[in-house]
Design brief:
By secondary structure, the protein is of the alpha/beta class. 37% of the residues lie in helices and 23% in strands. Strands 3-2-1-4-5-6-7-8-9 form a nine-stranded mixed beta sheet, with helices on both faces.
Length: 268
């Protein structure tokens, strides 16, 4: 007897040798969520739990070939876009997303990258962010981003809110269907995870500061959310479930090396 095919999630992200984020960590999360994860590798990193030393970005042509080969072979129910490392790769992902617009897409903004070493590297980083916001964000069903990054982009002029109520509302205005801003201030000393949706609708859940030396939990949350969407859940319910599971995994994080803690994805 042939077993039923589980929901399939296509993940765009780097091959992270520490297993703390990207691949293979996202494949573990998909499996724990009852889904099967596919990989379109965006880069190979050289890193440990403390420092990311090098990033070797995949060419946009190879990235496009990886993804389309998978999409033409298997029925993908959701897409998660994590670390992208060149404006050209962002453009390639945006075109793929447009061609498969019926598939829910979760975009995680704010993945870990090395600090730019010089002006040229800073220009490349600026071009990548601009391409991601202009090309990929309008294709996203849900954007997951930390409030701290939104505040940084507002302060340096990367993001303008115009007449929008907040930066998250501005992202919805730029084309994203939903935006989940993690750690958004509600009042002094109190932060929430804020979900902004169609027509400016908002929902929030309590935010808990992660343990010291924790890795970014946004990637874990975005993958869990993509798995929920692949199973047919509506966005607000999928976000609520994903926050609960991601918080539990972060609370049970472990410290295997000399750097950051790693979320216990076996609890997802």
């Amino acid at each position: 007897m042939t077993a039923a095919t589980p929901p399939i999630v296509l993940i765009f992200g780097p091959a992270d040798p520490t297993g703390s984020d990207g691949l293979p960590a996202d494949a573990v999360t998909c499996a724990r969520m009852g889904c099967h994860g596919l990989a379109a590798i965006t880069a190979i990193t050289v890193q440990d739990t403390a420092v990311m030393e090098e990033v070797h970005s995949i060419s946009p042509e190879l990235l496009d070939d990886q993804a389309r080969c998978l999409l033409e072979d298997m029925p993908v129910q959701a897409i998660k876009v994590g670390g992208l490392y060149s404006a050209e790769c962002a453009s390639a992902v945006a075109q793929i997303a447009a061609d498969y617009s019926q598939v829910p897409l979760v975009l995680h903004l704010g993945h870990r990258t090395p600090l730019p070493a010089d002006a040229a590297a800073q220009d490349d980083a600026d071009d990548l962010l601009a391409a991601t916001l202009e090309l990929v964000l309008p294709q996203a069903d849900v954007v997951v981003v930390e409030h701290a990054r939104l505040a940084q982009w507002l302060s340096d002029g990367t993001l303008e809110i115009g007449e929008a109520t907040s930066a998250a509302h501005a992202m919805v205005g730029a084309g994203a269907k939903w935006v989940l801003a993690l750690g958004s201030p509600l009042r002094p000393g109190h932060a929430v995870n804020l979900l902004v949706g169609p027509e400016g609708s908002t929902t929030n859940w309590p935010w808990q500061a992660p343990p010291d030396r924790s890795s970014d939990s946004g990637g874990l949350l975005a993958t869990t959310l993509a798995a929920c969407l692949a199973q047919g859940m509506e966005v607000p319910a999928a976000v609520e479930k994903s926050l609960t599971l991601a918080d539990a995994a972060v609370a049970a994080s472990f410290l295997p090396g000399m750097g950051r803690r790693i979320a216990n994805r076996r609890l997802s």
